[in-house]
Design a protein that fits this description.
The complex is a heterodimer of chains A (107) and B (115). By secondary structure, chain A is mainly β. Chain A is built from no helices and eleven strands. Chain B is an all-beta fold and 115 residues long. Classes of the chains: A mainly beta (107), B mainly beta (115).
Amino acid sequence: QKEVEQNSGPLSVPEGAIASLNCTYSDRGSQSFFWYRQYSGKSPELIMSIYSNGDKEDGRFTAQLNKASQYVSLLIRDSQPSDSATYLCAASSPMRFGAGTRLTVKP
Amino acid sequence: DTGVSQNPRHKITKRGQNVTFRCDPISEHNRLYWYRQTLGQGPEFLTYFQNEAQLEKSRLLSDRFSAERPKGSFSTLEIQRTEQGDSAMYLCASSSTGVATGELFFGEGSRLTVL
């Protein structure tokens, strides 16, 4: 079993829609969780971090954490074509990544 | 702040040769990580350092791989007797153990091609 699992996608949504990305993790000792975005040919960059159960909002992005279910999610509201990328879920520490979900936002 | 720097950016080698990659982290960061990434996969954890101490190494990592961070600044990753399966992007990242713990800052990577 992989330490961090993501619904591998790919995921395609129309511009302006909500994109929902999901992730589960196996190590109950993990305390910190992250979503990274990776554009094709580029390195990952941090979008959100979340440490406590519940929701955390930052602009169009909302991260949700449920430690009892070992589940992390990312919602992207009002999706834009520029959001098209691979989204990586990660759990710490040290940081382990899922395989990523490729998101395409169609104009 | 010049960010995380990795060299070389590309390396093509023949099977059986040794290769070494270098990573210069962000200067105030005390943690340094190495990951390997292949097409369609997320970064795979290899090893990490806090200052000069290597704190963890992936159990899946072959003993052909070795990493050092001798003075707690730059790090090197050496792959001995390369195999075609070693072809990948090798990513270095750094972080601090300060308030905003956990965020990794990645370099642009070193792409290895083993012929």
